Amino acid sequence: MRRTDARGCEVSGANADALDAFERAVGACLAWRRGADLHLAHALRAAPRFVMAHVLQAWLLLSGRDPQRARAAGPLLKRAQALPANGR
User: Fold this and answer.
1) At residue 49, what are phi and psi to the nearest 5 degrees?
2) CA distance 55 to 43
């Protein structure tokens, strides 16, 4: 089943529930609200192979000022790279 996000981009590994949670996470990030990590956790429970959910989770860790959290992004990105993904 083909899935696209709210921006019209095709996503890999998502189902409807995971995509909805991902969009809530993106919305929280863009609005500078808390809770994006909880929405992403829900998305990844619903669809563990949802590539962009892994990528956004890593980006959240990298965008802070805590070096330990930034280092934690590495394994998440490696996990995302190992998943089957579209060209995006």
Assistant:
1) -100, 20
2) 12
